[in-house]
Amino acid sequence: MSRAGGPRDGADSRSLSATSTREVRQETMLINMGPQHPSTHGVLRLLLELDGETVISCTPIVGYLHTGIEKNTEYRTWQQGVTFVTRADYLSPFFNEVGYCLAVEKLLGIEAPPRAQVLRVLFCEMNRIASHLVWLATSGLELGAVSMMLYGFREREQILDIFEAATGLRMNHAYVRIGGVLMDLPDGGMERIGDFLQMMPGRIDEYERLLTKNPIWLQRNSGVGPLSAEDALALGVTGPMLRAAGVARDVRRDEPYCGYETYGFDVVTRDGADCYARYLVRIEEMRQSLRIVGQCLDRLREPGPVMVDDPKVRWPAQLEVGPDGIGNSQAYITHIMEESMEALIHHFKMVTEGVSVPPGEVYVPVESPRGELGFYVVSDGGNRPYRVRMRDPSFVNLQAAPQMIRGGLVADVIAVIASIDPVLGGVDR
Known about the structure:
Elements: H1 2-21, E1 29-33, E2 45-51, E3 54-61, H2 69-73, H3 81-85, H4 93-108, H5 114-142, H6 146-167, E4 176-177, E5 180-181, H7 189-211, H8 215-221, H9 229-234, H10 240-243, H11 251-254, H12 275-299, E6 319-322, E7 325-328, H13 330-339, H14 341-352, E8 360-368, E9 371-379, E10 387-391, H15 393-397, H16 401-405, H17 410-420, H18 424-427
Antiparallel strand pairs: 1-2, 2-3, 4-5, 6-7, 8-9, 9-10
Helix pairs in contact: 4-5, 5-6, 5-12, 5-17, 6-7, 7-12, 12-17, 13-14
């Protein structure tokens, strides 16, 4: 027994000694999060390098939703371009339309009538609230606050009902046109918006009662995904992400358009520079948007035109809601079909050829729900753009994902991506 046991004990000792002197082998694991993962906001793919549950590195991979919107726009007339750009960031289509039309109007040297500008501001701010509601609903769902999915889409539905009544569509409206907007508010439109303004502040208060001091919400967001002001500026980050790091940059105030300089609102900032600070910024931004919409309603009490009085620019002309939807008014159809051959020829040429834009290049930024949305537009003097390029904030902000995710846990990746609020339609345009 003793002779049998001796060698075994000796062998174990030698093995342990060898293990202690051998360098311990370290390995990391590469995993794909997405593009099918529901928490990656559609078709975003993240290549994560993990040491246990700690993220060592993160590589965002995009392109799964590529639509070629910019290039398609270059092969259509200037007016048709609105139909394409509105589909980029499909959660905030009004901002795409406004940015594009402002760029073309700058090349043309024209300005939309005051009432049209007020309507642009009104629908953009309503759209900002709707977009933030989607962010709040999906973020809550992804982090376990399922009730927010129900509440967020409940209020968003009311906004989409207003959009549908005014534009005929719930999304991708093509409501903003070169020289103005498609048409004025429908009968009862101001009353519906006024009712929403009365209801919505209480709903935002309800969201805050559910989340702001909720211990689970705090644990999942506080200190998660840090991004300092210096890093945010170096990476070109804009919008709520930048303002949550304490930088008061807002295109509406710094480079005003559509008369934003005449509206009273606050640029919301926080100093936390984490997911929780981004939540606080977006919540308060919804309140500020309600404030702006209220001022818009006051200004809309005075009637006025919603399209420039230039027959070479304004198209479609004299629209109204009919039994089969929005289209040219019966009076206008009668005029071009029965009364004036010249008017018919002009209408035909506007539809088929469109307007010619003087040569030049411009860059026009607007403040979308995700940050600075810019349009770089080049004209060679023809009836279609020579070049259209979009600075989509979702694409730029995603650059910060590796910085925010590195060193955190796998579970934190969900919170970080939610706080960025990327829309892949804008990323893969």
